[in-house]
Amino acid sequence: MLTSNLHMVRDVRGDTSAAAELSDFNGIFCRQPLEHAQPGQIVFFEGDPAKHVFSLVEGNLRICRLLSDGRRVITGFLRSGDAVGVSFKNRYLYSAEAIDEVTFRRVTKRSFEEELATSPQLRPLVFSRVCDEVAAAQDQMVLLSCKSAEERLASFLLRQLQSDEAHGGLRGVIALPMTRLDIADYLGLTIETVSRTVTKLSSKGIISVCGRHGIKVLSRAGLAHQAAEYEDDDVGNNGRTMMAQRRH
Amino acid sequence: MLTSNLHMVRDVRGDTSAAAELSDFNGIFCRQPLEHAQPGQIVFFEGDPAKHVFSLVEGNLRICRLLSDGRRVITGFLRSGDAVGVSFKNRYLYSAEAIDEVTFRRVTKRSFEEELATSPQLRPLVFSRVCDEVAAAQDQMVLLSCKSAEERLASFLLRQLQSDEAHGGLRGVIALPMTRLDIADYLGLTIETVSRTVTKLSSKGIISVCGRHGIKVLSRAGLAHQAAEYEDDDVGNNGRTMMAQRRH
DNA sequence: CGAAGATTTGACGGGCCTCAAATCTGGTGG
DNA sequence: CCACCAGATTTGAGGCCCGTCAAATCTTCG
Question: Taking a contact as any Cβ pair under 8 Å apart, which residues of chain B between 38 and 77 contact chain A?
């Protein structure tokens, strides 16, 4: 049975304590040579033997899965500081493609696993990242399962905004290195619907389009409202209330 | 930040070697007393402090997440042998509800984590299960992202069939302890669409409905064809071919 | 400038959702 | 044993959101 492969293990979470974590995690990679990939280049293919674990130093990757008839799903976007290929499985379950110019390092899966087995500091770190990975996947399942196009885009933009800010981007401005088709395949929509929905949010005064790969957030509250999620702040709330509502 | 929680760590994978794994994994739980839950009872709530890890002994659970307006998403179904609540996070990210009569055991998260830290046999086991969890989540993202109602239901039935067979069920018969509403919330459809699609598959001669909670598979190949996935056998293929098709 | 690709905009149709009602199933009490 | 009821499921009619197809516009780069 072809089973799991972890594609994304986020390295930075936007607080000052992340620096220590980052160096710990990257300790495995830092002796490896830098490698490069051009936009559109595929770092590894779905189905290939999973020989390496990668650490993204610069640039952005998209994680793709394909159906037999050519339909494409993007299960995640990766940015500098993320790792990809962490798994005990022997084949990659997805492809990793460079969105823009990318630099990365790699270690063999074997040495990564040895490091993991022998390093008590590393273990909880990796395990914790994997938990974040599962949480992200579940958020995405919620998004795909029952959100409208407008809610999906708003949720996506909100996440990107938080991610950008965690990485030291300008407050209120979202960088979108990926194309509209990438966004569409990530949100389970078509390119046309993404475009129309961007226009709609823009005409509502919630965002403002800045060129092809930039969006300015004019009303964060408006975005959060459209996203239809529990989080109502820039910071997630731990005191989220429970309601046991049911339809009908 | 409220982040990941692993809900499903499948314990049995249908081969004879699974028995050893199972006893290893359940070694943590086997000294704990048995607990019970009635149909509809909630084992723990989304947002509650995550104090325990659970091991399902008998019966079925549904894993639910709710949106603020009451929309419900089921991110997974659990059966005997599965564990739930494995995570380093301090709050549950989802609710776990009994579908039928359920018996389970629990250990504190603290003791589970201590066991995990000190047991070199257990670690790769848990880590491997987590990988399966992520793989399942990604499969579900593919399903929700771009499959039609018919493909979703076919994929779901195929998975249930494989799971049933792995657990020693009758060949070709699928047990569906959950309601149609559960299936709908799991597949991102409405209850009416699920019902209509079941009827459609039935009238095509691919399945045959056996009462409320049973479905007989008349044509496994037909199901697999409708599911629109790579796997074309009852066993997944490791030699899956890669194609780099793109739309347009 | 010109061409290729990315994005936007428009018209139209279909698949799934919504609302409504009929039917089926299982459990309870007479 | 059977009537009855509540909940689950099925079936039907109609509408809407988003996908499909097509064309215009914008951007980038040789």
Answer: 42, 45-48, 65-73, 75
